[in-house]
Amino acid sequence: TTKYPPSLIIYDLKTDNLLRKYVFPQDQVKEDSGFANIAVEDTDCDKTYAYAGDLGKPAIVVYSWEKNDSWRITHHYFNPDPLACDFSVKGHNFSWTDAIFGLGLSAPNADNFSTLYFHPMASYNEFSVSTEYLRNQTVADDNFDAFKLLGSRGPNAQSSVSFVDRKTGVLFYSLVNLNAVACWRTSNNKYLMKNQGRIYMNEETMVYPTDIKVDYEDNLWILSNRLPIWMYGKLDLNEVNFRVFSAPVVHAISHTACDITPRSDILEKFVNKAKNITKDIVAKVKPNSSTTTKPITVLLTLSCLVRFLAT
User: Fold this and answer.
1) pTM here?
2) Secretion signal: which residues (predicted)?
3) 34, exposed or middle or buried, with CB in 10 Å at 0-12, 13-18, 19+?
4) Residue 235 domain-assigned (yes or no)
């Protein structure tokens, strides 16, 4: 039963005043529509855009603050993959055909357009499109190839929500079947499994990660809520069923494929290994005039190699 039509409700968080309520037009809301996630492009306040994914009737509804108007965009990449509709969470097996779900916006480019990274929930693939094409329905309809297939997360890696940290350029996303949250650095040209990092995985605490955000102080926030257990079983009220996780972004991605910090620990291990090799050589060399310079030469060579690797 639908009591209220889908709407955008915009508040001033400093005063708690309602600034605007925009009800989606009837022709943009279909019988099976369901709007679970929204991405907001707000680097220019007057030209703010909101992108709402319709997971029931695959589409993106684009809203312009400046025009106070919206339009509906469709594309084949928004559809669920029939081979990825099988889910298993905490012993509950079920089939979901959720379409476009995860939405993550990059920082704007020089022309003030962002890249929208998106994926259906029933899918293993990640896609992208420039908001240059989403801001105009005609342009989007006339440029099918503007929507790009980036690659696959691999088997059993269906994802619901996602979010891009605009400072590091890291895309965070849930892995609902694996009770995990993963990441990919958008500066990486290839969306391959080896380029994706697993930042947290737990079969008790991270059951069904359902929301991901990065705040203005560079902290990652994750919500898990055990929704499939509630739908197909029964929540145990003696257990913790809802959890909020938080960590600084740089700590969350540390020592993963998404790490952006210099790996000084690897360099230190190499230096220590080089020193040990040099000591072994020194110990074997006889202390006479013809051989005493060899360990020094070896040490200098290794030292130069370390400096080369460091740069």
Assistant:
1) 0.83
2) none
3) middle
4) yes
